[in-house]
Specification:
The chain is α/β, with parallel strands linked by helices and 346 residues long. It has one domain: 3-Layer(aba) Sandwich (D-Maltodextrin-Binding Protein, domain 2), CATH 3.40.190. α2 links the parallel β1 and β2. α2 packs antiparallel against α10 and α6 runs antiparallel to α13. The C terminus is likely disordered.
Length: 346
């Protein structure tokens, strides 16, 4: 009788243990992570993270994310280093920053590679996402989706309408192969300066202008430049990325929750582009000369700098040619779509 009772107790205990084990296997562990970014208040990037947080809070009960989106972790380089070391789990970064980790992406910023924002969206979403994800994976990162930054233009203290107007000018370009190739290609005295050192360099006259997205130029450098030429020679998309080891450890439920919280990319793209247009008008209202290139003038810029893509591919190496070929395939597919013949750069 005692043996039977012992076996019964052990049987019940084994059954309960099995049920608890099954339940533990089904229920995902609570999710903890840190999100780091540099999202200035009252900008589309700030609004995007606000929507992200609201979606997570409203639709999940087992997620604990810490938001360090005001640059608390440091500048973009420092954030990306923290991401690779798994001290930060999710971040958004510009293509300029991401190319320091995946150099092949520099090719996507080659001069005059894209003709319209619509073409950019189509090529990145349909032809560059998966190849880029493979390159990020080799660096221990997971590319979740593309972000939005916008066209790169040229600002200076004198009118630059044609490439010949920039010859000999001391201009700041981001310290990457594509930006430097563009400035050298137009005959400028190219000086690679990190973003944190830009304003002091402008104040001291070490540089007399540079290349920048219109939004960042408005908030960072417009006080030091009387002219802005809408060269729109390169497009910076950026991306939302995660530490791959951390991302792969998540349940599909948590991965779906995070991806769902980002929302449609079209919403963020429209917000950033609307802000850029508004700030361009604000600069005009302030008295800054905003130069719109005619088709004939743009053709001169294209002829001067478009061939630099091949030099960039050779210098960057790796799988740069693969990225370039994917872009060309995407552009060809985009041209084959109906109603694309009348699209303008925007």
């Amino acid at each position: 009788m005692r043996k039977q009772l012992v076996f019964t107790v052990f049987g019940i205990f084994a059954l309960l243990s099995s049920q608890f084990a099954q339940a533990a296997a089904v229920e995902p562990a609570p999710l903890f992570g840190r999100i780091a970014a540099m999202a200035p208040p009252n900008t589309p990037w700030d609004a995007a993270w606000t929507r992200f947080r609201a979606h997570i809070d409203e639709n999940t009960t087992d997620v604990d994310l810490r938001y360090l989106i005001r640059g608390e972790v440091g500048n973009e380089d420092e954030i990306l280093k923290a991401l690779r070391r798994n001290r930060v789990q999710i971040s958004g970064a510009s293509l300029q920053g991401l190319a320091t980790l995946v150099p092949e992406l520099t090719v996507a910023m080659s001069p005059y590679l894209f003709d319209s924002a619509e073409e950019v969206d189509f090529v990145y979403d349909n032809f560059l996402l998966e190849p880029s994800r493979k390159l990020f994976a080799k660096k221990g990162l997971a590319l979740l989706r593309w972000n939005e930054v916008g066209w790169t233009d040229l600002y200076s203290n004198s009118a630059v309408v044609l490439p010949s107007d920039a010859e000999g000018l001391k201009l700041r370009g981001a310290p990457n192969v594509s930006a430097q190739a563009f400035l050298l290609g137009i005959g400028a005295n190219s000086i690679p300066i990190g973003s944190v050192d830009l304003v002091p360099a402008l104040q001291r006259g070490l540089v007399r202008g540079g290349t920048s997205n219109a939004i960042f130029h408005f908030f960072q450098s417009r006080s030091y430049a009387s002219h802005l030429t809408l060269t729109r020679h390169s497009y910076d998309t950026g991306g939302q990325i995660a530490n791959k080891e951390w991302w792969d450890s998540l349940s599909s439920k948590h991965q779906d929750a995070i991806m769902g919280a980002f929302g449609p990319a079209a919403v963020d793209r429209a917000a950033v582009r609307a802000l850029a247009d508004g700030l361009l008008q604000a600069m005009r209202d302030e008295g800054i000369t905003v130069i719109e290139l005619t088709p004939e003038q743009r053709a001169i810029w294209v002829e001067r700098t478009e061939p630099l893509a091949f030099d960039i591919i050779d210098e960057v190496g790796g799988e740069s040619q693969m990225i370039y070929d994917a872009i060309l395939a995407g552009k060809e597919a985009f041209r084959a779509l109906p109603n694309n013949s009348e699209l303008n750069i925007n």
